[in-house]
Amino acid sequence: MSKIITGVFGSRILQHKYYSIHEPLCKDRCFFFAARGSFCQDGDVIFCNDIDSLFKALGLQHNPQEWRLFIDSSKVSLKAVLLQNGNKHPSIPVGYAVCMKETYETLKHMLSSIEYSKHSWHICADLKVIAVLVGLQAGYTKFCCFLFQWDSRDRKKHYIKKVWPKRQFLIPSVKNEENDPLVASGKILLPLLHIKLGLMKNFVKAMDCGGSGFQYLRLKFPKVSKAKIKEGIFVGPQIRQLMKDPVFESKLTKKEASAWASFKELAKNFLGNHKEEN
């Protein structure tokens, strides 16, 4: 439990921006004990069982509409933190699970533990976690989107058909829906980073593998395998490097350069921290 309490304690320090390293140790001893009383442990899951008391200990007003729940998973742990929508306050960890993956039962247990149904925050997570939250079947499924009946197998129409039928209901055993949804679809926030990664993937896959632009990618990132480059698998820092690289743009064909310019504009004005009004 000490790890998550340390996280909350660190959030408290960031919130008040103490000028002396000794100041928080004196002022926040009472807070430390108050915060510790808001957390419980059930097996490998540590969670906050009283969100309102935790916010009170932090000196904050808890309005669920002003916070979103971010669920992050890795190979060895699963954590849930609250993020303030305007980023005016530091993140607040409310759940942590060790040696557990993003399975349906694990997420169900964590959401129940932090009383998600009571607060109903919007949720932001990677696409794999989102799929579990809405009850979709794992793996290479035919209907893998929880918003539309997009057919992942119908490759011929992926770049032709623009409008796909909406999913009206999420019903188990219908169109790859495996379990009852843990969260309403309207509460899901699609992660902008994953949208950017998906657009980058489609852009690279549409490039000519024998062209100068594709060959430059191999020279630019020699440690990335040819198979990964061919599939357009890049991470955020690599994409940012390319967006600042005029040499890469000069290697593109006219059609590729036009698509790349549109991608850069979208990434800058919508998928980043800055949002244009239009």
Automatic annotation (TrEMBL):
It comes from the Eukaryota. This is Uncharacterized protein. It comes from Araneus ventricosus.
